[in-house]
Specification:
The protein is α/β, with parallel strands linked by helices. The chain is built from 13 helices and 25 strands. α1 runs parallel beside α6, α1 runs parallel beside α13 and α10 packs across α12.
Length: 530
């Protein structure tokens, strides 16, 4: 082991949506910070260009996690990409700017997370946000995290927005405002036609400061502990050499909902039975590490377009050249599109709570193990926002280079399948409204027939549903027996260690998770500096 002693005031593990924020705030307060990132730099055209998101997924800039195969998904495993570059998942995600709603955070507070209600978190969302159009009660305009309207609106995305209104849902041009309900175009984490990742915003503000050190290709193996006190971090560099760095004040673990519990367990912090099963001596028994796994599932309704107007083929040949030149010259055109331009939120039960979100793509999409359908079309993806199913992460080995086992347990709660079924029916109804019918020849899947049995639709859900890549909850905040961190994000019973990422969410928010993670990181920095 190469072991050159290096000491820093703070060590931040993971330069993703949370780590870049924490580093920014600590650095600006004059603290000495080491930021460790497992992946490479974000210096790629495909990272910074909104429409080229699929050119990044599956490269060295993403971790590709796999869940266990599940009988509820016809024996399929699911693929869960996560960011592995500066900016983390904010550098590879769909760029939807979404906070969830007030009831999500009030629910956190009621679950034992005092100080995390809507009135507590809204000012922090506003402080982080630099919105180009919206201001006032719900929005900030001067924050580092840039938010803008879609520069490009695909005809199929626009047809969906009109059809949603024809189906009786209100138009909404601010899903983060007074009400989340309705159909419309998403605001996105983009600015001047470019992706607005936390690396491009928060980290770029401070990375050249003398009190900031950023190390890429630094894969954290485990934490260094003296008794119950974290004193440093052991990581592998690009050559595979183990190195040790020390923290005078704190280590902040921002590796994400899949990697943070893994690092804890390899450090001897976690459920006793899980650790001992792979010959790791427990240092601090915390039964909730790796438990409470939550994620959003979505299921596509596929429609065939009458004309070849989808995004199919636009990334090849003369079309690709034309779009590339327009983007490079003017930062306009198709490459400014986030692809996931339109969508919305509906209350499928009539109880006053939105429970279904739509992600709409003007192309027929598949997944890692689902081949896309051939030809031109649209994918309307309803997603259930409040899943009751809970999964678990476990170690497979005491070797940190081995993957974790993800038992996601999707759809194990019958109410989750009921909600997916409701969302699927709403999506099929929208597809048959006049504005969609004017551009759509017929529904490809689940069925060209409007009236089909629930059994047919449930079979479609089991065969084609996929994750929305929102894993969370695996180091949850709270005070119960499975809580891992307290309301200041300090790990229970472990000194000098905080966790700051989607793993601390006690309950998954009703929407995309990137903006909430930025908010969590802003609050983490506040707690440290206080």
């Amino acid at each position: 082991m190469t072991n050159t002693k290096k000491e820093f005031e703070y060590i931040v593990i993971g330069a993703g949506s949370a780590g870049c924020v924490v580093t920014n705030r600590l650095a600006k307060a004059g603290k000495q910070v080491l930021l460790l990132e497992a992946g490479p730099s974000d210096n790629s055209f495909f990272v910074h260009t909104p429409a080229t998101i699929m050119q990044v997924i599956g490269t060295e800039r993403t971790f590709i996690y796999r869940s266990k195969s599940a009988p509820e998904l016809d024996g399929r495993a699911t693929t869960i990409p996560q960011g592995r570059t500066l900016g983390g998942s904010s550098s590879v995600n769909g760029m939807v700017y979404m906070r969830g709603n007030a009831e999500d955070y009030n629910g956190w507070e009621k679950s034992g997370c005092a100080g995390w209600g809507w009135d507590d978190v809204l000012p922090v969302f506003k402080r982080a946000e630099g919105n180009e159009r919206l201001a006032g009660k719900y929005h900030g305009t001067t924050g580092p995290f840039k938010v803008s309207d879609a520069k490009h609106k695909h005809p199929l995305s626009l047809a969906f927005v009109k059809a949603g209104q024809e189906a009786g849902y209100p138009h909404n041009d601010d899903f983060n405002g007074e009400s989340q309900e309705g159909i419309g175009f998403y605001q996105t984490t983009t600015f001047n036609g470019k992706r607005s990742s936390t690396a491009d915003t928060y980290l770029n503000e401070v990375k050249k400061m003398s009190n900031v050190t950023v190390l890429t290709d630094a894969s954290v193996q485990r934490l260094l502990l003296e008794g119950s006190k974290v004193t440093g971090v052991i990581y592998k560099d690009k050559k595979g050499l183990e190195k040790t760095v020390f923290a005078k004040s704190e280590v902040v673990l921002c590796a994400g909902a899949l990697a943070s519990p893994k690092i804890l367990m390899h450090s001897g912090i976690g459920p006793k039975d899980v650790l001992e099963a792979v010959d790791i001596a427990p240092v601090k028994v915390l039964n909730g590490v790796g438990k409470n796994y939550q994620d959003h599932l979505e299921i596509a309704v596929f429609g065939r377009t009458k004309e070849p107007i989808s995004l199919l083929g636009q990334d090849k040949g003369i079309s690709a050249l034309k779009h590339g030149l327009q983007y490079l010259a003017f930062k306009s055109g198709l490459l400014t599109s986030t692809v996931l331009e339109s969508g919305g939120f509906v209350d499928s039960t009539g109880d006053g709570t939105v429970d279904i979100q739509f992600h709409v793509l003007p192309v027929l999409v598949g997944d890692a193990d689902i081949e896309p359908l051939e030809g031109h079309g649209i994918s309307i993806n309803p997603c259930y926002l409040q899943p009751k199913s809970r999964g678990e992460l476990r170690l497979t080995s005491n070797n940190p280079d081995e993957p974790v086992e993800i038992d996601a347990r999707y759809l194990t709660e019958p109410s989750d399948m009921d909600a997916m079924l409701r969302g699927l029916k709403i999506a099929r109804n929208i597809l048959r409204q006049p504005s969609m019918a004017s551009v759509i020849e017929h529904e490809l899947l689940p069925s060209a027939e409007a009236d089909v049995s629930d059994d047919v639709l449930i079979s479609h859900i089991r065969k084609y549903s996929k994750t929305v890549y929102h894993p969370s909850g695996t180091c949850k905040m709270g005070t119960d027996d499975e809580a891992v961190v307290d309301t200041k994000l300090c790990v229970h019973g472990v000194d000098n260690l905080r966790i700051c990422d989607a793993s601390i969410m006690p309950i998954l928010v009703s929407g995309n998770t990137n903006a909430p993670v930025v908010m969590i990181a802003e609050r983490c920095a506040d707690f440290i500096l206080a």
